[in-house]
Amino acid sequence: MRKFTLTFFCLYFVAIHSFFILLLPVFTIASANPDLVRKSLKEFETLATNYYFSEDERKDDPAIVNNQNLYDVIHNNISLSFDIKERILIGNVKMTALNLSDTLNKIYINFLDNMNVNSVKLNDADINYNRKNNYIIIDSKNQLSKSKEFTVEISYQGKPLNEGFDSFSFKFIEGNICIYNLSEPNYAPNWWPCKDILTDKFLMDMIMTVPDDLTAVSNGILHSESSSQDGLKTFHWKSTYPITTYLVSIAVSKYDKWTETFYNKDSSKSMPVEYYSFPDYTEKAKIDWGVTLDMLDFYSEIFGEYPFINEKYGMAMFGWVGGAMEHQTISSMGYTLTTGDRRYENVVAHEIVHQWYGDAVSPATWKDIWLNEGFASYGEALWEEHLNGSKALFSYMRKEDYGGFSGTLYNPEDNLFSTTVYQKGSWVLHMLRGTVGDSTFFNILKTYYEDFKYKSATTDDFIKVCEKVSGLDLKYFFDQWVYKGTGRPEFEYSWKADPFDGQSSSNAYMIRVNINQIQKDYDLYKSNLRINVKTENGNEEFVVFNDKKNQVFTTTVNSKPVSVTLDEKGWLLKKVKQVDYK
């Protein structure tokens, strides 16, 4: 029965976001041995991603996408209320956009056909519209002028489909209602009409009216809170930084709230850090989330100033039993990950890192999803290193290596949330660090963030930053680890040592190391390779550039060698076998 429980929940959560992949902590096996859970994920990855949560990029008609890109969304004003008993969402969205073309005759807006549209207005006047293939299609009737703003206002209601990872849910937890969304990757149109294109970021007001015993949480800052005589309360949240559709968040429930204050590096700015927990979990959450200020301080130091410093960072529990989602300025946290012993501290770290990489800098396409998940996953390892030193870093990375990853890192197709994207993505950054060195690596991260802050980036954009900062041609690196290679180098090596210059009385030895790559998936993985030599008087390391399938390296060591290992610390994804010297 324990094996069945482990298998089922590995299948259930192998694709779960941020969206860090974890088993339910309520089960004994996960609580007792979380490392066992992590190691088991690889075994079930293919089955789970194919049959449970296979998520691919929505296949939009390129002609419609081109049409949508004729206008730029500047602002969305979203007003929501809820019929909780009937699970109905009532909404009004007013979109302000800039017309970029003199050929914008039809305005396409993504919205699922099952939702009811009550009215559509263009520039505050009623207008006819069509609905087809999950679009609202508005004929502008030549009312729009190039370089001029226009508005589209849509009133609607209905029961949103719950697709993907929980695109929109009404759920009772511990006897209390929780209304929430998780739109990644393509599910924002399940619950609000929008131009659902990653690269078009906008400003936003979110206004939610709920029963007065509930709290409604969203992105940005709380602009106002007001009560009415009919037992309702309205929360008005305002996002003053650009946001993309899948990061728009609502979380409505009966919450305990507490607040801390974060100060930037020179204390010139302060920011509220807000926590919203289900009452039964508050005391444990105060322990588990108690590291948040320290994490914000650490990541601000290595990445650059927190990107939403004039708004907030926050965490709100939602209806997931495990996992979390990095909604901009307000991460949604699976409630059973709150255990009171910091067991899932890496999840807290993961979502905070996303505020830089994923939220401030968003992927230009879902093919580039590793720029989100790989960065956030390596951020977990960096936190471990910060707390416990370099040994902890390498230990953490060893746990992130499941022995093999399927497919390429770029364009994972129907495996957007697989271990390849998360763990191999993390390893690529780790190997990049090993290639360019610490100083250059962290300069790359800061530069990438600054160059693309509040915008979207592609993998090629990131590569250009890497090459600009390092001064290196890194095409080989990204070809083998991101674009083309699907495996890792498999090294067979041997070595021999002779007294230097043939003088047996000499303390120095000449050592020869033969290295062969025998993998089948990719002809040659080029890399900086650290050769570690244990001698009678201590350990020595030298770094070579392995750029041939069969290669011999020679060096001098100061005393008789006892053993030779390749990449002993763990800077490379690899397999290694020592053979007899020939």
Query: How many separate helices?
Result: 13
Principal-axis shape: elongated
Task: Report the biggest beta sheet as strand number plus sense, adding barrel if it closes.
Answer: 8 strands, mixed
The total of beta strands comes to 29
* Helix proportion range: 25-40%
Structural domain tally? 5
- Global structural class: alpha+beta
Mean pLDDT: 90
Structure description:
The chain is α+β, with helices and mostly antiparallel strands. The protein has five domains: 2-51, no CATH class; 62-253, Immunoglobulin-like, CATH 2.60.40.1730; 256-361, Zincin-like; 365-483, Orthogonal Bundle (Neutral Protease, domain 2); 490-578, Aminopeptidase N, middle-beta domain (Immunoglobulin-like), CATH 2.60.40. The strands form seven sheets. It has an eight-stranded mixed β-sheet, with no helix packed on it. Helix 11 crosses helix 12. It is elongated and about 95 Å long. The model is unreliable at 1-54 (pLDDT under 50).
Architecture blueprint of SSEs:
Elements: H1 2-13, H2 28-32, H3 34-51, H4 62-68, E1 71-83, E2 88-99, E3 106-110, E4 116-122, E5 125-126, E6 129-132, E7 135-139, E8 149-158, E9 168-173, E10 176-181, E11 202-211, E12 215-218, E13 221-227, E14 232-243, E15 250-253, E16 256-263, E17 270-277, H5 282-288, H6 292-303, E18 313-318, E19 324-325, E20 330-334, H7 345-356, E21 361-363, H8 370-388, H9 390-399, H10 419-436, H11 438-452, E22 455-457, H12 459-470, H13 475-483, E23 490-499, E24 509-517, E25 527-535, E26 538-546, E27 550-557, E28 561-566, E29 575-578
Parallel strand pairs: 1-11, 17-18, 18-20, 21-22, 23-29
Antiparallel strand pairs: 1-2, 2-8, 3-7, 4-5, 4-8, 6-7, 9-10, 10-15, 11-14, 12-15, 13-14, 16-17, 19-20, 23-24, 24-27, 25-26, 25-28
